[in-house]
C-alpha cells in the first residue's frame, strides 16, 4: 500500500488543478464568444439564406445552436477576458444539443468534432 502524500503536497496539487480547470473554463467561454462573433459576421456578410446553408452544410449543427453562440457573444462581447464569468455562471444552454452536434453521438460513431 502506498503511503499517503503529505498534506502540503495535496493542497498544492489541488491549487494547481483548480487553476488549470478555471483557466480552461475561461478559455471555453472566450471561444464561445469568438464563435458567436464570427457567426454574426458571416450572417451580416452573406445574408440570412446563405448563412442558414453555411451553418447547416459547412458547420453541421442546427440554427438554434448557432443562435446560442451569437446570443452568448452579444451578451458578453464587452467583457474583458479576465472578467469573463465561469461556465456555470454563463448558462448559455449549449452543453446539451450543441456539444452533442459538434462532437457527434459517441454511440453513433465519430462526429464532426471527433
Write the layout of secondary structure elements.
Layout: H1 7-46, H2 48-59, H3 63-76, H4 87-90, H5 97-103
Oligomer: single chain
Q: C-alpha Rg, in Å?
A: 19 Å
Number of helices, counting only DSSP H or I runs of 4 residues or more? 5
Strand portion, in percent? under 5%
| Separation of the first and last Cα atoms | 39 Å
State the helicity in percent bands.
55-70%
| Overall tally of structural domains | 1
Give the low-pLDDT segments: 92-96, 103-114
Mind describing the biggest β-sheet?
A: none
Envelope shape: elongated
Key phrases:
disordered C terminus; 114 residues
Describe the structure.
Helix content is 68%, strand content 0%. It is an all-alpha fold and 114 residues long. Helix 1 crosses helix 3. The longest helix is centred in the N-terminal third of the chain and has 40 residues, at 7-46.
Q: In brief, what are we looking at here?
A:
By secondary structure, this protein is mainly α. The chain has helices spanning 7-46, 48-59, 63-76, 87-90, 97-103. The protein is built from 5 helices and no strands.
Amino acid at each position: 500500500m502506498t503511503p499517503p502524500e503529505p498534506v502540503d503536497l495535496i493542497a498544492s496539487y489541488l491549487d494547481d488543478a483548480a487553476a488549470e480547470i478555471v483557466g480552461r473554463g475561461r478559455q471555453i467561454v472566450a471561444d464561445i464568444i469568438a464563435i458567436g462573433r464570427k457567426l454574426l459576421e458571416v450572417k451580416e456578410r452573406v445574408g440570412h439564406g446563405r448563412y442558414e446553408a453555411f451553418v447547416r452544410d459547412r458547420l453541421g449543427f442546427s440554427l438554434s445552436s448557432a443562435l446560442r453562440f451569437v446570443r452568448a457573444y452579444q451578451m458578453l462581447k464587452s467583457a474583458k477576458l479576465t472578467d469573463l464569468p465561469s461556465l456555470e455562471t454563463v448558462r448559455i444552454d449549449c452543453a446539451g444539443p450543441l456539444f452533442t452536434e459538434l462532437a457527434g453521438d459517441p454511440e453513433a460513431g465519430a462526429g464532426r468534432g471527433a
